[in-house]
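Notes from the pairing session

We agreed to fold both candidates in a single pass and log them together. This is the raw record for the first candidate, unedited. Please don't reformat it; downstream parsing expects exactly this layout.

Candidate A
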Amino acid sequence: MNGRLKLRIRRASNKRLGGPMPWVVAIMVALMVMIASAGMALSNLARTSEADLSGSLTVQIMEAAEYLRDREAAAAMSVLEERDDIAQLRRVSDRELRDMLEPWLGDLGEGGANVPIPALIDARLAVPLSEARLAQIRQSVIEAAPSARVEAQSTWLAPVLRAVSALQYYALGLVALLGVTTAAAVWLAARSAMAANRDTIEVVHLLGGTDDQVVRLFQKPVVRDAALGGAVGFILGGGLTLLMARQFAALDSGLVASGRLGVADWAVIASIPLAAVALAALTARISVMSVLRGIR
């Protein structure tokens, strides 16, 4: 191919594909980084919470009379202590229960005189908590404490885990949508550049130039712009993600800490701009080749 024609196509493609293209890619990558980070944090939180609560159960003694409630709680504790499959057992103190409920119900008074507070027993099993085992424990506890309610802690968390799972799919869908949008922007930019240089491309073909040579000339600026935009987007998205992580870490909550991003998570996040560059290069090639087939 003639050197001047090469230079002419390169300049024209740079002019057409430059401009807003790096910023479009940067915005898309930044959004994908933030959304993917949130999705993986939710995944970590759900996985850790499910693992922590999968072998735990709670016993509530619902008896209103305090002396009967204490007697049933002691009987339930005795039944659970005799079981070999119980690894840890603790009765939550009335003071702790009042402290947890006061933000919602106000001052409950000493001993919960204003509002009857159930006795609460936390138990952690040494083995997985199956439905059959839970039913067996429930039956033995209720025989000793008729007002007791025995529930697996994972049962309480199930609606939350389902909501978190839905949010993960939502985040995945948004990332996919942003990827499609990025590909569409590259497609339109490449076709616009090809349309503006149609006459020049026809001359190149007449002089013996190949389609691959033309594709490479149009693909290089796309890869360059996508790499620049991907780097900027990763810095922006990663920086905002770290800022939000620090804000949540200040809450000093065990639940929030369980959603912390690990090394593997950051490796996946770091691959997003690389995937954006690869997607842009592939889209540009397909777009240019489709136009060239129409010219021939």
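Candidate B (folded immediately after A)
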Amino acid sequence: MLDSFRERKLEVIETLGSLSDLARSVGAASLADRVDADLVKKLERDRFHLVVVGEFNHGKSTFVNALLGRAVLPVGVTPTTAVIHHIEWGDEPSSKVVLASGQEQPLPFEEVKTFATGGARADEPVSYVEVCLPAELLRERIVLVDTPGVNDLSLTRAEITYGYIPRSDAVLFVLDAGQPVKESERLFLEHQLIGKSRDKIFFVVAKSDIWNADERAEALGYVKNRLSALVEDPPVFPVSAQAALAGRAEESGVPELVDHLMRFLAEERGRILLDNALGEGLSAAAVLGRGVDARRRAVAMSAEQLARRIELLESDLAGHADTIEKRRLDIREEAGAIKAWARRDLDRFCDDVVRQLPGILQQASGDDLKQHLGPFFEHSFRQWAELETREIAAALEALGERMVALVKDDAHDVGKRVSGAMGADLKAPPIEVDRFAYDVGIFAVLSLGMGVMFANALLGGLLLAAAPALALWNRGRTEAEIKKRALELGPVVLREAAAKVGPKIDEMVDEFASRLDEWVVTAGQELHREVIEVLAAVRAEREAGASDREAELARSERDSERLSQLGARLEALRGKLRGASA
């Protein structure tokens, strides 16, 4: 089903591989390594991730079993036993447990069903269970991720919401035909899912075989009407997993869903993946053009001239280190300022909630406190953290764009100096904001940062500890005593959570600053490094006696022509790709 995408991907990989080979032949080893590692290898190992989400007891795991064509995953799990499952292709069925520490434990394949339903469990917290098997759907380099219920307020739900969903290629949101689009589902979709994944959500109405022919049209109309308030023209697929597992695929609705998914992955997600790779390939080709020109000029130099050019460029690179260090200092200072005001915002938030607490407690009954105090803290903290993260993201993005502008100016100056050293007009590196976003990965950092923040600090138990602790304490107590205890306990729990969140904010900012710092160093040295590498390669070939000037000049012309052909090929592939999506 993904044949056309696979063919296009192989064309792109082959062309990028030729570009890498040419770079290595010219002597631009660093550029060749970057094309290999960041483009070719990434395309070769890239997979499509389909994440299945929904509330407990809605038939998610049975639905995944239907997609796989066999009963593999456990059904009927509870919030206390549920684990995430990664299912991918394997020539033979196998499975293992991946712990939160990163360590792996073997798990016999026949025990996959019992592991999450009361069977033997790992001693340490489990990150996920990995299952490999030869299911036809997985052959297309697809990874299915079966998740526990999103109506469970837990660390796992945070990981799904802020980790798996943003990184997925498609989200299958499973509804129950017996009670479709409940208010809790609507709220989760509106507040947690739609903003991040609007264009990649598919709604699966499981257990649709409970409808008779007369009910079916009316029920589907109701579902689509409810979802249309959240998503324009929502894709809704009624399925019967039981029919599919019983061998009645034609009446299950599963083939229609799979066909739609395959087209979406090939035409939308696959197109974006290839377009990004082709754009990076064109940038690499532009960079290599300088190396090809530098080699052509180096071939015409005497040994003394070549040595002087290398020495001059190395000296200029050393002098440019001061400029690079200044940029790095700017990054560290700005990151420190962002962390400082984020910490101040966190303190003010805690103070505001603590000030509100007496009024909230005054209006609430003892039973209300037992049920709603923990969720109130969790909701308040979540709301603040999401707003704060957007502000942090804006500040980091502004910092990144400022660094891009400065590095572009620096590169222009470097280009002039290197051109003077080479006696040629070597243009500055093509540094753009899009390339910065690709290299630094601002959105990946922020998404992961939110996931880490919530999974480790908010939903790990601190904010929800108030209600259970209060429930244990309040037996036989008067309502006044309960409220007094809540007033004492609430601020403590809130500030304990804040003490966990603060360092996580710092980690998120530091991770971005570290990536930006690395990018500034790499981009700032790129022109020097590439030209020095090429000149050094020419010198080494001469010293080895493997260089003939006339032959090398002819080779340089062929390299230039080959590069021109590869650039045209990349442009043609990109044009064809974009034309196919128009």
